[in-house]
Design brief:
Layout lengths: L2 H31 L3 H4 L5 H9 L2 H11 L1 H12 L3 H31 L18 H24 L6 H4 L4
Length: about 170
């Protein structure tokens, strides 16, 4: 397989995974991972709340593996087309990604544990602080998204096509 074909294949994986997993995925998986309000009304003991929250852990693990697909694509692109400046940006993405994963998992787990307010008397008030984690998540994810998007755009653009050749004729 040629380098150009490998780069194109990575682009075919990178762009859909970036938009569907990173931009839409958090909302869908957050809705799936939290305990629904009709289940919350039936939970009465600390053990039941904890079991409901712990039931979200496998989904959080799978979610984080799925979210890693764009980062893996960036690393593979970096191996195909080595460039020290891009390599530093990829390392920055790799450093931001675990922080985003941890904050996102804590937010979703804590939201499941608090269970729309019904679980508050059973657990430490610290779990109520998870309601502020979306702000922290935005602070971490915004530079990560911008950096991943710009790296993806750079890597998926053909280098052998000049700027004037890339534009359609007027």
């Amino acid at each position: 397989m040629s380098r150009l074909a490998a780069r194109a294949l990575l682009a075919v994986v990178f762009w859909p995974s970036l938009f569907f997993f990173w931009f839409l995925g958090p909302f869908v998986l957050f809705l799936l991972s939290t305990t629904s309000s009709e289940v919350c009304a039936r939970l009465e003991t600390r053990a039941e709340f904890l079991a409901a929250a712990n039931g979200t852990i496998p989904m959080l693990v799978v979610q984080n593996f799925i979210y890693a697909v764009p980062i893996v694509c960036l690393v593979l692109w970096g191996r195909l087309v080595p460039d020290p400046a891009r390599a530093r940006h990829i390392v920055t993405c790799i450093k931001l990604f675990p922080a985003a994963m941890v904050v996102g998992a804590l937010w979703e787990y804590g939201s499941s544990l608090v269970c729309d307010g019904y679980g508050q008397p059973f657990f430490s008030p610290a779990w109520q602080m998870t309601s502020y984690l979306p702000i922290v998540s935005l602070i971490i994810n915004f530079p990560l998204y911008v950096l991943a998007f710009s790296l993806g755009r750079t890597f998926s653009t053909r280098e052998d096509v000049g700027e004037d050749e890339a534009r359609p004729p007027a």
